């Protein structure tokens, strides 16, 4: 029997997560982190969160979310997770949980289901082969998971594979050829440095040029509040960014993204921004960085040149409702 969310199931769902979701690499949940990720999240919807019961015992948990202010949010609902207990991981149970999520999406007028890295319910996971170094968000479904195989069978189309990449920062240095690029860009009127509100201008216009609501909100707020952000500027007008430069409590360097306006591409600014970002993280005592990028994204070469390696892959998926 599948029922909508009720707080009485919280501890049983946490126990289920810590037994099954961790097998796919997800970080364990506590009451505090469960509340932060799920029930206290502004996008949490108790009518879009479901529990599978068998003889009144919790054997499954599924959560989705929606929001018109999210990327693709006007047409799509986000699948956050479907977790089933051992012995209950059948296509029938996966389908039942998925049907419940999709019905709620359609009730809210959505036309497609999305497994997408813009999901505001951030699921942290451990980086394989490390002392529990963690990434703050899973950008899709782990491709080695049973859920991934089921979603493919259920008609979800893989739109991209996201490569999760990792680098320990203790030995990071900027290579000489990248320094040479910096000198060349400088001669062309470009600088790559930390944002200075008294020197630089045009942040809002730059962010609007990327048409990314999350970047507009986060990077705009950071530059307004004085949180360090690496920027590229042409004659002091901001035309690109990487950041923000924030060392998380777990030692990870958190950043929201990197971008250069199309009209200023071709000067090596993307490489410069990223290497300067790594340098800025190391300078504040950051232990490691992790990020994800599309497997076909040319930027993957920049990350590999900096020393990053791919440690896990996730799938971005979609199904359009008939």
TrEMBL record:
Occurrences of domain N-acetyltransferase (ranges): 190-322
Position of the signal peptide: none
Protein name: GNAT family N-acetyltransferase
